[in-house]
Specification:
12 strands, alpha/beta, Methane Monooxygenase Hydroxylase, Chain G, domain 1, 3 domains, seven-stranded mixed beta sheet, 23% strand, five-stranded mixed beta sheet
Length: 331
């Protein structure tokens, strides 16, 4: 049945197409619904307009709610783990991100250059870590939206500015501000903690940046004396790149992950794209990471690795190790 749309409807539809904001679009859609002829030939069109109205109303309400609580940022995780960069103004977080990844954050000598999260991928051997630069933290301020990003990260780098005589005070202020947000930076993971725990314990490496600055070694000595029992620590210079090569192994150890490779029977293993899993994972966990159907049909596997005989047959619950090669056997 033809729709036989009226000039009034066509005018409302044109207004919808030309609308610049959600409120204008919603008004135009309501006008379209009121002007469209009501018969079987327009049933589908009426349903489509109603769905658009419902979605726009939802979007508008969400926008109003977000406006009340300020901006919200979510960085989808990539690579072997997500690491947030934390520190005081001018600690060199953006410079470190630029030195380790292909990201191009704004870098300047004045504080608060970084205002929004900036991700970048840091290569390490045959995997990569995702680093996320964040605005500086002071005794008086940390952006409210940062709490969500910090709590959801897999680990952190806490930067100490070795070019500043106030490095200890800045670190203490940063740690105190995070504690106020119920985030505690720690050396190792806390047993049994989950997403619903009131306090987030985030595994952290202390990074002394600007190791080439005058007086940096003396300041680093004071920082290590204060925090040596709390964090694993590394001094480096993002500017000269001195010490950068030591950071990758530290992050890999911090994340407590392993790399596992797979192979088909009679073929060579695929060593270009390892699966990254938590240390302590079993053969069945690897199968699930590859494909649910493989996991459902899995009976046993053969393993090539440091903790097994070459090609050893193992069961589904066998604990895999870093750089193991797995060949699945299923029904």
């Amino acid at each position: 049945m033809p729709a036989n749309l009226t000039p009034e409807y066509m005018k409302a539809e044109q207004a919808y197409k030309e609308a610049k904001d959600p409120e204008e679009k919603l008004a135009a859609l309501k006008e379209m619904l009121s002007k469209i002829p009501k018969h079987k030939g327009t049933d589908h069109m009426q349903g489509d307009i109603k769905r658009k109205i419902a979605q726009l109303r939802k979007d508008i309400e969400q926008g109003k709610a977000q406006g009340k609580r300020g901006p919200s940022y979510k960085i989808p995780k990539e690579g072997a783990g997500q690491i947030v960069l934390l520190g005081a103004p001018n600690a060199g977080k953006s410079s470190l991100l630029s030195a380790l990844t292909r990201a191009e954050p704004e870098i300047a000598d004045y504080p608060f250059t970084t205002r929004t999260p900036q991700p970048g991928m840091m290569p390490f051997e045959d995997i990569a870590f995702q680093l996320v630069d964040t605005p500086p933290i002071t005794a008086d301020f940390m952006p409210p939206w940062m709490n969500e990003i910090v709590r959801s990260a897999d680990g952190a780098l806490l930067l100490a500015d070795l070019g500043s005589d106030a490095v200890l005070e800045d670190l203490e202020a940063c740690l105190a501000r995070l504690a106020d947000a119920k985030v505690e930076l720690v050396r190792t993971a806390v047993e049994g903690e989950d997403a619903h725990s009131p306090v987030r314990h985030l595994r952290t490496i202390l990074v002394g940046n600007k190791s080439d600055a005058p007086g940096a070694q003396d300041r680093w000595g004071m920082v290590r004396d204060l925090l040596k029992d709390r964090f694993e620590a590394l001094a480096l210079s993002a500017r000269t790149r001195e010490g950068l090569e030591a950071l990758g192994p530290l992050i890999f150890r911090l994340l407590d992950v392993i790399r596992v490779y797979t192979k088909a029977p009679g073929k060579k293993p695929d060593l270009d794209a390892p699966f990254v899993l938590a240390r302590g994972s079993a053969v069945l966990d690897v199968a699930r990471a590859v494909h649910k159907e493989i996991a459902d049909r899995l009976q046993s596997a053969r393993i090539w690795g440091s903790a097994a005989f070459e090609g050893q047959h193992v069961k589904r619950d066998y604990i895999v190790h870093d750089r193991d090669v797995i060949e699945f056997h299923h029904s």
